[in-house]
Automatic annotation (TrEMBL):
The chain crosses the membrane at residues 89-110. Residues 113-161 are annotated as: Disordered. It comes from the Bacteria. It comes from Micromonospora qiuiae. Residues 10-35 form the Putative zinc-finger domain. The lineage of its organism: Bacteria, Bacillati, Actinomycetota, Actinomycetes, Micromonosporales. It holds the Pfam family zf-HC2. This is RNA polymerase subunit sigma. Keywords: Membrane, Transcription, Transcription regulation, Transmembrane, Transmembrane helix. Residues 113-126 have a biased composition (Polar residues).
Length: 260
C-alpha cells in the first residue's frame, strides 16, 4: 500500500482523477478502511464545493494578492449561499403547505362522502325515495310484488273440489276487470273462467291449461295468477265460475265466486 494511494482520496472525491487512476484507487479503496473512512468525512466538503462554479474559483484566485478583495468575495459567497438555502427552505415549506391543504381538502371530501348515505345508483342526496309498495292482505294474491290490487277482494274455497282462489273485482266504464289467483288446483286439466250474468247469459273471459304438477300443490307450491276483463258490468254479474273442460268439451265447476 503506497503513500500515493492514500493521497489520492481528495483527488478521487473531487473527481479530478483520470479513468485509469480512478479504477486503481477504487481497487485500493476496497481493501483500505483508512481511505474509506477519510473519503466518508470528505463527502460534506465535496457537497459544499460543488456549489462553487468556475467563475467563483477564478475570482478567488485573483484575490489572493488582495486581502480586502478576498474578504469581500468570501462575504458575498456566504451571503449567496445563505439566500440559496433560505429559498430552498421556503420552497420546502410552501410544498408542505400546499400538500397539507390538498390533503385537508381530500380529507374533507372523503369525510363528506362517508357521511352521505348511499341512496343507490343514479340517486343524489336530494333524490326522492319511493315509499314501499303496498300489498294485498293475501300474501299469495295477485297484488303480491306490486302496488295494492284495485277492486273488491273476494276469497273463496270450494268445499267439494278443495280449489281455493282470491279474486279482485274492479268495476270500470267498459265493464269489469278480474284479477285472480288459484291454489290447490291439481293437473293436468284445461280450465276456463266464465261470467254468469243475472239474465242467465254466460261469457268465457279466460282459459288456460294446468300442468301435471298443478298450482298451489305439494308438487308446485306456486299459485296461478291471471287477469281478465269482461264487458259485463259488475252489477249485472251473478257470479264467476272456474270450470274444467274434458276432452269432449263438457264443463264441470271447480270454484264459484259470488259477485259482491
Amino acid at each position: 500500500m503506497s503513500r500515493v494511494d492514500h493521497m489520492d482520496v481528495a483527488a478521487y472525491a473531487l473527481g479530478v482523477l483520470d479513468e485509469q487512476d480512478m479504477e486503481r484507487f477504487e481497487e485500493h479503496l476496497a481493501s483500505c478502511w483508512a481511505c474509506a473512512a477519510e473519503l466518508e468525512t470528505m463527502v460534506p466538503v465535496v457537497g459544499l464545493l460543488s456549489d462553487i462554479d468556475a467563475e467563483s474559483m477564478t475570482a478567488l484566485e485573483q484575490t489572493q494578492s488582495n486581502q480586502v478583495l478576498l474578504d469581500r468575495t468570501l462575504v458575498a459567497m456566504r451571503t449567496h449561499r445563505r439566500r440559496a438555502r433560505f429559498r430552498q427552505v421556503l420552497a420546502t415549506a410552501a410544498a408542505v403547505v400546499v400538500f397539507g391543504g390538498l390533503t385537508g381538502v381530500g380529507f374533507a371530501t372523503l369525510s363528506a362522502e362517508s357521511s352521505t348515505p348511499n341512496l343507490g345508483s343514479g340517486q343524489g342526496t336530494n333524490a326522492p325515495v319511493d315509499p314501499p309498495a303496498t300489498r294485498s292482505g293475501n300474501p299469495t294474491g295477485p297484488g303480491v310484488g306490486g302496488n295494492k290490487q284495485e277492486g273488491e277482494q273476494v276469497d273463496v274455497t270450494d268445499p267439494t273440489t278443495g280449489v281455493e282462489g282470491t279474486f279482485f273485482l274492479d268495476s270500470r266504464d267498459f265493464g269489469t276487470v278480474v284479477a285472480f289467483s288459484l291454489g290447490r288446483l291439481p293437473g293436468p286439466r284445461e280450465c276456463r273462467l266464465v261470467v254468469v250474468r243475472k239474465d242467465a247469459g254466460t261469457e268465457v273471459i279466460s282459459s288456460w291449461s294446468v300442468p301435471q304438477g298443478g298450482y298451489g300443490t305439494n308438487s308446485n307450491p306456486s299459485q296461478l295468477s291471471l287477469a281478465a276483463a269482461t264487458s259485463s258490468k259488475l252489477d249485472d254479474v251473478k257470479h264467476f265460475q272456474v270450470v274444467q273442460v274434458d276432452d269432449k268439451g263438457k264443463a264441470s265447476p271447480l270454484l264459484t265466486v259470488p259477485a259482491p
